[in-house]
Specification:
The longest helix has 19 residues. α8 links the parallel β11 and β12. This protein has 763 residues and is an alpha/beta fold. It is globular, with a radius of gyration of 26 Å. The chain has a 10-stranded mixed β-sheet with strand order 8-7-9-6-10-11-12-13-14-15, sandwiched between helices. Helices cover 32% and strands 26% of the residues. It starts with 6 loop residues before the first strand and ends with a strand. The protein contains 22 helices and 42 strands.
Length: 763
């Protein structure tokens, strides 16, 4: 089955599994749309790629030319979009079928198991990517290295997290398979352990000839299954009988270190930035897969030394005044036990566990285990069960978990309404505490709120955030690390981080900043930006909400919001047969930033600048006035425009008609050229310096001729691919980058008499 180039609609596109598949199909040329009851960061990213997203499920959401509707197990059969698809005779398929169509074409590496599959998938994907194998990746969690949960690569491997919850992983035909463990779980689907075993046996039977099953030797169920398997098997574990064994394990805060002993031979020491003995097992699995893929052990170690986990997997949300806030997806007793055990890496700290049970069926079947899994916590705060798609079961409430926890001997247990938890935690928290927010439901909102309350740099910032939350509809925070919002992956927190929902919100933010006399800075995707290590003393306003990402095409005219990604715009217009912007493909950042900086090429006529196509720009002045500036009043030059006194809201662009296939080929050509010559796969802010006017050499040529390629200061490095790129090669600080910039500027001045002008904006 193939879905390439089709018009595909995803019902429930905001789900972590659905969104990854939609991402891959959108990147490989399919016309993708989707809907969900609630939009999120993932849907916003898809929207930036040119995917049409609808909030809410309606029959009218389905495109006229739809060929396929994709749904997941969480979508009910009476969904209006499914009903409309049936009415039209549209093909309706489960997401697992679509994943299988992507996965089964390549050397698929599928990772499954009751626990640990997201982290293990992330480790393997990052390892292959950083080792130059360019995998296609679909993960059930967001990973910083991919700036999301999916990546389309051109290498031989496809790495996917395989969902066992509804047996949908049986659609996959893996070349290699990793199984982390097998325990009673998803008993609403499987009914008993025997059914779970049968499903996993069938999955193992799907492994292709020549492939390998990598399994946890310490799991007795898996150990037994491996004996009866027809494929090659390699094991990992703490046992001396495992093929890959961990030795000399060291757990110290977020640092986990261990020796990798393969069939009795010590290969060397592995270090990971994720805590807990369970992550030692995940790391061993990744090493085994890497060796099988032909990587050297040193390559594997180097590729994973900076790995710090997926979001909501022991994610440090903030650490302030001695209080550490950890957010984790743990919703099974074994996972909760592992998270609490990981806290032993910090000595003599009080552990406060906040837990939201997930699904009535899981709570009913595993209530005794839930009672025992909080051993090691000092305080347990429980809230009502998150139902997911389930209907209530009589007698199954959070109270039965409370009773079992109390029976286990833990006395400090309480039940709170979800809306009261943050107040209570803020009241009882004290220096030295580790606060764990656990669960797979909407408990993440508590983690978000506590991050704002506990992580603020000072009380004044916290008070201002509370004021702004009442003033605007969008998101406001005082703890967002700007390293998470910039392409350089560098920078401390802003005093205030604000995401206006619409133009009215933006106007109110400007008015508020003026009123309290604080500086502000507008960003989109944070490219071409270097933020100081201490953060930004003021307000960062991010134009990333859906209101700033709208796009409308009429004929050859395009009206596009400033927050829309530039790459997404290029893909969208090319798919409509509109030419002119192809050479801009692969340039990071948003349309607003691109117009402001007149993004494009230099000295080579085949590379166009976006300003050539802009016919007018809708802007907001700093006093909140909105107006449209027509073409005759716009001035574009090399990396500049005359729009520095305004905030760009929308751009109006005029393009030309052309053949879609030719445009797609041109995009691929330009992207391959850039991938070959530029450092696109590592954190950077793009070109560091503006090319000097009327000079015989470009910046890159001068820096290269001075032998500065590969020059390093700390974690900052002059790219060996393109000398005008400074890359974040190893946890670089802003100080590292600025020191390296000064070295380069001084060398160019001394040898060529040129004063280099920064293209990167430093704040």
């Amino acid at each position: 089955m193939t879905f390439k180039k089709n018009a595909i609609h995803f019902t429930g596109i905001g789900g972590i599994g659905m969104s990854g598949i939609a991402h891959i199909l959108a990147e490989t040329g399919s016309a993708v749309s989707g809907s969900d009851s609630e939009l999120n960061n993932i849907t916003r990213k898809l929207q930036g790629m040119g995917v049409r997203i609808y909030e809410g499920h309606r029959a009218s959401n389905l495109p006229k030319n739809i060929s396929t509707l994709v749904y997941s197990s969480s979508i009910s059969s009476d969904n209006p979009e499914i009903a409309e698809a049936k009415k039209r005779g549209v093909k309706i398929v489960h997401r697992a079928e679509v994943l299988g169509s992507i996965f089964n074409r390549n050397k698929g590496i599928a990772i499954t198991g009751t626990h640990g599959k997201t982290t293990t998938t992330s480790l393997i994907a990052v390892m292959l990517k950083k080792s130059g194998l360019d995998p296609t990746v679909i993960i059930g969690g967001e990973v910083d290295e991919f700036a999301g949960n999916a990546m389309s690569g051109k290498g031989a491997y496809t790495v996917a997290e395989a969902d066992e919850s509804d047996s949908s992983f049986l659609h996959l035909k893996p070349y290699h398979a990793v199984i982390t463990n097998i325990e009673p779980e998803h008993l609403d689907h499987y009914k008993d352990m025997s059914a779970i075993k049968r499903s996993f046996k069938s999955f193992i039977g799907n492994i292709k000839k020549g492939g390998v099953l990598f399994y946890n030797h310490d799991d007795p169920v898996l150990k037994d299954m491996a004996k009866g398997s027809k494929c090659r098997c390699k094991s990992f574990g703490f046992s001396k009988d495992a093929d890959m064994q961990a030795g000399s394990i060291e757990l110290d805060g977020f640092k986990t270190a261990f020796n990798c002993i393969y069939k009795g031979k010590n290969l060397g020491r592995m270090e990971l930035g994720i805590p807990g003995r369970h992550n030692v097992l995940n790391g061993l699995a990744a090493v085994l897969v890497g060796l099988e893929a032909g990587l050297k052990f040193k390559e594997i170690v180097r590729s994973l030394k900076d790995f710090c986990g997926a979001k909501r997997r022991f994610q440090l949300r903030c650490e302030n005044k001695g209080i550490m806030l950890i957010d984790d997806y743990a919703h099974h007793p074994t996972e909760i036990r592992a998270v609490i055990d990981a806290c032993k890496g910090w000595k003599n700290r009080r552990i406060i566990a906040v837990f939201q049970p997930h699904r009535y069926t899981r709570t009913k079947f595993l209530v005794n285990d839930f009672g025992r899994c909080f051993a090691g916590a000092d305080k347990v705060i429980l809230t009502d069960i998150f139902p997911a798609s389930e209907k209530p079961i009589k007698g199954v409430t959070v109270k039965i978990v409370y009773d079992k926890v109390k029976m286990s001997g833990l006395t400090d247990v309480s039940i709170f309404k979800k809306e009261d938890i943050s107040d209570h935690v803020e009241e009882i928290a004290r220096p030295g505490d580790i606060i764990l927010v656990l669960g797979a439901g909407d408990i993440k909102k508590i983690a978000d709120d506590l991050t704002d309350r506990l992580g603020g740099k000072d009380r004044k910032s916290g008070d201002r955030v509370k004021e702004l939350k009442k003033l605007i509809k969008g998101r406001v925070s005082s703890t967002d690390l700007l390293s998470k919002h910039t392409s350089f992956k560098i920078g401390g927190p802003a005093d205030i981080w604000a995401e206006p929902k619409d133009i009215r919100d933006l106007s109110r933010l400007l008015e508020y900043a003026k009123k309290i006399k604080i500086p502000f800075f507008i960003i989109g995707n944070g490219s071409n930006l270097l933020v100081g290590d201490s953060g930004f003393k003021g307000m960062i306003i991010s134009l990333t909400s859906d209101s700033f990402k709208k796009i409308k095409i009429v004929g050859t005219g395009v009206r596009v919001g400033a927050g829309h990604s530039l790459s997404g715009l290029v893909r969208t217009v090319c798919s409509r047969g509109l030419s002119g912007l192809e050479s801009l493909v692969g340039i990071p950042g948003t349309v607003g930033g691109a117009v402001f900086m007149n993004a494009g090429g230099y000295s080579n006529p085949i590379f166009r600048n976006i300003g050539e196509f802009v016919t007018s720009v809708k802007v907001m002045s700093y006093d909140g006035t909105v107006k449209t500036i027509k073409k005759e009043y716009l001035e574009f030059g090399y990396r500049r425009s005359n729009l520095d006194r305004y905030i760009i809201l929308e751009a109006f662009i005029k393009l030309a008609r052309s053949d879609k296939n030719i445009l797609k080929s041109n995009c691929s050509h330009f992207l391959n050229m850039k991938r070959t010559k530029q450092a696109l796969d590592v954190p950077s802010a793009g070109c560091a310096f503006k090319n000097p006017a009327d000079f015989q050499f470009t910046c890159g040529q001068m820096i290269d001729m001075l032998g500065l390629k590969g020059k390093r200061v700390g974690g900052a490095e002059v790219s060996t691919k393109h000398a005008n790129f400074i890359i974040n090669s190893n946890k670089a600080t802003s100080k590292d980058v600025l020191s390296l910039i000064e070295i380069v500027k001084r060398a160019v001045k001394e040898n060529y008499g040129v004063d280099l002008e920064m293209e990167i904006k430093v704040i």
